[in-house]
Amino acid sequence: MSQSHAQAAVHPSQQSTEHHDHPDQEGMRTLGFWIYLMTDVIIFGTFFATYIVLRGNTNGGPGPAELFELGGIIASTIILLTSSYTCGLALLAMNKGNKRALIGWLGVTVLLGSIFIGLEISEFTHMVHEGATMGSSAFLSAFYTLVGTHGLHVVIGLVWMIAVMLQLAKKGITPVTKRKVNVISLFWHFLDVVWIFVFTVVYLMGVS
Predict the structure, then answer these.
(1) What does the pLDDT profile of the chain (208 residues) look like in tens digits?
(2) Most buried residue, 86, 100, 135, 148, by CB count within 10 Å?
(3) Measured between alpha carbons, how far apart are the two ends of the chain, in Å?
(4) Long-range CB contacts (within 8 A, 24+) of 170-177
């Protein structure tokens, strides 16, 4: 009996020690993602600064006003911003515990993001056929680097979102999948904010 009482007395302290020895893993992973996002802010800030400095260096070739077709860019912008809205609807569905709606809205977001990438590839292809390649001028080098890096991030986000959808279909809404949906949603909204700056600094200021 004394041994049993001794174990019962030690057990709460052991639980407390184990609790302090094992921090909230999901919270730590979310913090790690925020740190990564800050590095992305620095990267895009550097690319924007480089583009602003080099946008007038066309090497005698076509500049933004001659190359950019604003109608297609506006359509791409509307599509990407709509995908941010559908991503928000996915979060609402998750908070209500509706797995089917959550996966469905993430699927719509993936579809819209894919259309956006398709339009961007079409734009790049058209420009290259016009002779406006990355090596044509400093302006074009800065343009392709900035816009292409954003596009690459969108592709990564699409692959990431599909992977989260597969996990949701298999495991349902759990603390782990909730954290993953929150993180990919934050990443997607971040890309939309970056695109607003791209649309304004690169395209609107370029054709004005």
Answers:
(1) 444 444 444 444 444 444 444 456 777 878 888 898 899 999 999 999 999 999 999 888 888 989 998 999 999 999 999 999 999 999 999 999 999 999 999 999 999 999 999 999 999 999 999 999 999 999 999 999 999 999 999 999 999 999 999 999 999 999 999 999 999 999 999 999 999 999 999 999 988 8
(2) 86
(3) 87
(4) 172/99, 173/94, 173/97, 173/99, 173/102, 175/26, 176/26
